[in-house]
Amino acid sequence: MGNSTMKAVAVVPGEKELRLVDHPLPQVSSETQIKVKTLDVGICGTDREICTFVYGEPPKGDNHLVLGHESLGRVVEVGGAVTRFKIGDLVVPSVRRPCSDPGCNPCCNDKQDYCINGQFTERGIKQVHGFMTEFYVDDEKYFTYVPEELRDLAVMAEPLTIAEKGLAQAYAVQKRLPWACTDAGEPLGKGLRAVVLGAGPIGILGAMKCVVEGFDTYVYSRSKAPNPKAELVEQIGAKYYSKYDITPQELAAKVGNIDLIYEAVGGSEVAFDVLQVLGTNGVFVFTGIPAPETRLEIDSDILMRRIVLENLAIVGTVNADREAFENAIADLGEFNKRWPETIKKVITGRYDIADHQELLVGKSKGIKNVIAFS
Ligand SMILES: NC(=O)c1ccc[n+]([C@@H]2O[C@H](COP(=O)([O-])OP(=O)(O)OC[C@H]3O[C@@H](n4cnc5c(N)ncnc54)[C@H](OP(=O)(O)O)[C@@H]3O)[C@@H](O)[C@H]2O)c1
Ligand SMILES: [Zn+2]
Ligand SMILES: [Zn+2]
Q1: Given ligand 1 and candidates 202, 272, 293, 347, which is best to mutate, with the most ligand atoms within 8 Å of its CB?
Q2: CA-CA-CA-CA torsion sign (169, 172, 177, 179)
Q3: What are the boundaries of each domain within the chain?
Q4: Taking residues 223-228, what's their average pLDDT?
Q5: Minimum-distance ligand to the CA of 223?
Q6: CB within 8 A of 172, min separation 6: which ones?
Q7: What span, in angstroms and rounded, lies between the C-alpha atoms of 2 and 107?
Q8: Residues in contact with 297: Cβ distance below 8 Å, sequence separation at least 6, in sequence order
Q9: Closest Cα to atom 37 of ligand 1
Q10: How far apart are CA 275 and CA 302, in angstroms?
Q11: CATH domain 5-146+347-372 topology
Q12: CB 38 within 8 A of CB 135
C-alpha cells in the first residue's frame, strides 16, 4: 500500500462483495474542513443490512461504498478558518448531509434530518463514503466535541442521538398539555412512566436516557430474563420484562398509565400490540425500520377511537441534528457518572479491522460491537 491510500471496509454492490479496499487518503480541501484519525467505529443493523445489498449506494462514479456511520476520532489537521476544533481534540461526526435543493427548508437550515425530498446523502449509507477507514475529512459543522473522559464510550453517541431526538420530539408534542408538573431544575420525566420496546443498543441507550430524564422506566423485549441485556437494564434502575412472560395488557396493569413508549424493536407486530396499551394523553415514538414483510390484522376501530378519545400522539423519528449529538455527549457523561461499569458493558466487543467479515456478515452477537483502529 502506498502513502496515498489507506485500508477501508467497503461493499461493492455490483459484485455483491464485502471486502477491504485501498481507498484514497482524504485531504483537507476547504478552509472549514477538519481531518480526523479514526479511533472507533460502531457496527449496527444498518451496516449488516447494507452487506445484504438491499440498500447502500456508492458515491457517483465509484463502484464501492466505504461503510461506517457511528464513529469517534481525533482531529489531526484543521483548515485555516476552523474555529471549533484544534488538533488533538476528540470528535464524533454526524451522518446525514443536506441536499442541494434551495427549496428544501430543513436542509437550508441545518435540519437535514427533516429533508423533504429524499435527496440528502448519508456517510457510509447513501452516496458518501463512511468512517470504517483510517482517516476522514468533513466540514467542521458536522462534528461534535468529545471530552477526553469519554474516549472509550463516545462511539455510542450516534446510536444515542436516536433517543435524544426521539425524546425531544416527545417533549415538543407534550407541550400541548401540562404533562409534567415538574419544578424548575427537575427532569421532565419526573412522575411519569416510560416503556422502552427492545433491549438492543438503541433500546438500552434509550432506557438510560429515560431514567436520566426521571421516568419510571420499563423495558419490554423478547429474550427471557435472566440474560445480559436484562441485567444491564436492571442495573440502571429500570425493570425488564420479556414478552414471553407477560402480555402488553399485563405490562400496562403493572406500570399504570404509560406516558411514553419509545419503540426500538424494529418489528411492527410487537410495536402495534404495545401501541394499544399507550396511556391516556401518551406519546408513542417509533424508531424501528422493519423490512416491509409483515401485514397485520389489528382492532383498527378500537385503536382509532382510543387515539382520538385519549389524545394519543404517534411520532416517527429518523437521524439526528447537531443538538442531538451535543445532548448525546452530555448524557454519555451523565451515564458514565451514574453507571460507570454498566455503560462500558454496552460495548460487548472491540475488534480489529481484519474481523470485518465475521462482524458484518457472521452471526449477530453481543450488544454493540466496535472496530478499533488505534
Ligand atoms: N430511526 C433511526 O434513525 C434509527 C437509527 C438506527 C436504528 N434504528 C432502528 O432501531 C431498531 C433497533 O435497533 P437496534 O440496533 O437496537 O436493534 P437490535 O440490536 O436488533 O435489538 C432489537 C431488540 O428488540 C428485541 N426484539 C426484536 N424483535 C422483537 C419482538 N418481536 N418482540 C419483542 N422484542 C423484540 C430484541 O430482542 P432480543 O434481545 O431477544 O434479540 C432486541 O433486544 C432497528 O429497527 C433499527 O433499524 C433506527
Ligand atoms: Zn447505526
Ligand atoms: Zn433536503
Answers
A1: 202
A2: positive
A3: 5-146+347-372, 159-316
A4: 98
A5: 1
A6: none
A7: 38
A8: none
A9: 222
A10: 12
A11: Quinone Oxidoreductase; Chain A, domain 1 (3.90.180)
A12: yes
Cα–Cα distance, 110 to 187 (Å, whole number) = 28
128 vs 96: CA distance, rounded Å: 9
Q: Where are the alpha helices (DSSP H) in 281-346?
A: 300-309, 322-338, 340-346
How confident is the model over 312-321, as pLDDT tens digits?
A: 999 999 999 9
Name the fold adopted by 159-316: Rossmann fold (3.40.50)
Q: Is residue 175 within 8 Å of 218, Cβ to Cβ?
A: no
C-alpha span between 187 and 71 (Å, rounded):
29
Peptide bond into 226 cis (omega under 30): yes
CA distance 128 to 363: 27
Q: Report the nearest atom of ligand 1 relative to the CA of 265.
A: 24
Query: At which residue does the C-alpha cell 454519555 appear?
Result: 332
Q: Whose alpha carbon is nearest atom 3 of ligand 1? A: 318
58-113 per-position pLDDT tens digit:
999 999 999 999 999 999 999 999 999 999 999 999 999 999 999 999 999 999 99
Cell of 275: 401501541
